[in-house]
Model the fold of this input.
Amino acid sequence: MPRVKPKAKPPEAESYKHPESESPMRPDVGTQAQFKKKKPPVTYRYDSSLSPALDWDGQNSARELGEWLLSMIDKAAALPSPHSFEKPQTFVNSSGKVVASVAGLQEAIAQFKALSKPLLNWAGKAERLSFDVPTLPLFVHERLSTKAIVDTLVSHKRDKQQTMFELFGDPQHSVTDQVLRAYEHMDKWVNRLILGDSLVVMNSLLHYEGLGGQVQMIYMDPPYGVKFGSNFQPFVRKRDVTHGDDEDMTREPEMVQAYRDTWELGLHSYLTYMRDRLLLARDLLTPSGSIFVQISDENVHHVRELLDDLYGPENFVNLVPFVKTTGKGAERLDTTVDFLLWYARDIENVKFRRLFAERGRYAFEKMFTHIELPDGTCRRLTKEEHESGSLPEDARLFKPQGLYNDSGSDEARFPVEYDGQVYVPPPGYFWRTNKHGFDVLKEARRLFGAGRTLYWRQYETDFSYTRITAHWTDTMPSGYASESSIYVVQTSSKVITRCILMTTDPGDLVLDPTCGSGTTAFCAEHFGRRWITIDTSRVPLALARQRLLTATFPWYELNDESRGPAGGFVYVRKQNKKGEEVGGIVPHITLESIAKNEPPKEEVLPDRPEVDNKITRVTGPFCVEATIPTPVDWEGDGVEDSGAVSAEERGSFVDRMLEVLRKSPVLRLEGNRTVTLRNVRPPAKTLSLSAEALVDATAHGQTPSLQEVVQEAAEKNGKALPLSAKPVAFVFGPENGAVSEKLVYEAAREAHAKGYSHLYVIGFAIQSHARELVEKCLEVVGILATYVQATPDIMMGDLLKNMRSSQIFSVCGLPEVKVRRVKAKTKTKAQSYEVELLGLDVFDPVTMEVQHRKGDDVPAWFLDTDYNALCFHVSQAFFPRTAAWDSLKKALKGEYEERVWDHLAGTVSAPFEAGQHGQVAVKVIDDRGNELLVVKPLSEAKG
Ligand SMILES: C[S@@+](CC[C@H](N)C(=O)[O-])C[C@H]1O[C@@H](n2cnc3c(N)ncnc32)[C@H](O)[C@@H]1O
Done:
């Protein structure tokens, strides 16, 4: 195998590239206002023959279909062979939908049989023969590259613009190209972290990018559809999520008020949620692809039925229980495992690489029952030897292995003489080798007779590994390379790594629509696979980003560096000083190789490629994307042509948001304080506002004011609001877009004119100009405004149960930063700058005061030293007061001065030179994963 050694490496950080792979250009988020390439929603249909069990009582629609199929069978049977109709016959149900179509007798019989198969049924399944998914483009919000960060810190300069962008994997398309050629032009591949509902994102991958049939493996670890709160972590730095009931939680605002795992119709909604996503996942898989679904014992049987429905029972590969805990003291038996359901897209073509595990003590005890002593005598191990594992000196452990097959010809039933005894296979059995083979086995002293049976001796040293089975007992998270857990429901890397290694090759694409803390992306990166990972929550996404950005991996040698991992890793056979096989290729002596006098077979251990210890590998460039398209102005001013949402659609979105606000009338502020709203309702007559409400200040421990008491009494009596009560106004941003400046301006003007006391702008994202206007609203329009971030989880739609949680809306602050000039330290003597994060200012709409939070008290902040207003390039990434960068620092062995790393754990950036855009952007990630952005021109720098 050709081994291309990378050039002698300084201890720099290197990463893998994927030069052979491409993906369609996604536009930068800064171009969203111009983006015009809208697409209609896609309708997905289920095969009607897979509707619920045939039920002959009265109304059931399956009865009608059954009767129709019977009539088709009659009709087709009367036709001459092959009993095909001239054109396919269709069955239309009472709502006018085509639910079945048959071309002839065979199909009609098959569909009739399918009808009577017992199938999993649940409320709403039969009605959901099809569903629509909006087709949204993905915009690139951030580009990240650990190498770029490390390089910037070392050189402190910006004279290698091109190289920097290359490090980010940013093709630097002009705005015109991004607007006109998005999704047409092909770019070099970069890995992807995507914020959004997996259904919408997978639909975008299929229909904007044509990624159908290109994903080699999907790992899905969805909510298990069981206990409340078991899959949701609302804080970046707080991992303990306790199960409890919703009411208890609301009384303890400190605790998680999660809702992610509760569903409107419980299990019924859960199954619908899973089925829709599994359907789209199937379309993404290559013909040789696999999907793994991680699930607990509560719903494993239902999810398996779903997968049978969608992937076909014949494509079931394995059900793998894997140990995840030692047990928690259950009343009866402790459950210690979760399960992996493994299905192939097509079992005949599935890609499979066998994995082996080193034989442990268990195997020694159970498998190798005999020893051969130096004088050639053989005997069974004694009980003591078995238990203690201590054997006589130079004894060789072996296992007597069978020499028969249950098929063969009479020629393979000859007598064999050994040690004075003659052996023949029992009736119906045949020797596994021929006469010559027996001669070789005798010569090699490999035969062993016991009673009337002849065996061959399989020595322990013939192969020191066992095939991995579908029962994984060594997967307890703590037992694996002291992996520390950052997310409440983090999967052990060992589990996902195995799935990746079994079903993909280096360079293949792996997708995880349930990113969490990014374990799949992390394992895929580790083994040189390309990856896409999706999550609808900001907290897990923030955790995954940090984990990937600060990780280090071994450098696996590449067969062909110009091809990247797609050219394969280098595997070699090698032994250590003790003569043990320690390479990625190990010998495997088999009966066949001995009998044929051939060199032993060689097995490749996919998890043991050659490592070049001189190179420190970091995560390659990746980007953060989201399903947030064009911001839309709602007032129906003729923007429909650009694909804007119709007034009707907007109306239904506003209604839904109103409902959510009514059910979760709590705005969360810094420091676990809240503002509670009362009497949330649509304003009587409005042009730009979405809702109005009263603010309940008791949440702050204040007693209600006289005004509020009067107000409440007035409400109870059904009277109009007293003018003095001054309700607050709300405007909701778009469902699939960022809040625009225009939306804020119009809403603020109306709110001011109508005498509201305050304007709350609620959105999933906000443009930076719009954010600026919110901050300066009192000055510009005359009314105070506050931006409230809504969690994207709301977009999971009707399936989610009443969202009572106060985690839904949070009031975000604005970063307070200082940009300073610093003395140039570089040879060029060019002016250098530094940025300090002073803190986070959060406006408290109740006390009307600004709360300040110190800069070193945020989970993370990022700096783009040359912000182009299109996409955020993370040139420096800070995780204050943490050891996040420690592993990289250690790997680079003091190559960089200590103060370089100090910057990355603090609030002051490393010095940098001005770039072509003359401005910097600072992004702060708060505890809820919200992103707060501020842009500063360098011309404002002091000092
Ligand atoms: C059990 S966790 C995955 C944990 C992951 N295996 C790890 O090792 O960290 C499930 C994740 O799926 C996300 N999720 C649930 N429903 C989703 C959806 N419809 N779209 C995208 N993400 C979703 C949740 O936010 C959660 O982070």
Notes: Residues 197-198, 221-223, 231, 487, 489-491, 513-514, 516-517, 519, 534-537, 540, 796 surround S-adenosylmethionine (CB under 6 Å). The chain has a mean pLDDT of 82. Residues 64 and 93 are 8 Å apart (CA to CA). The radius of gyration is 33 Å.
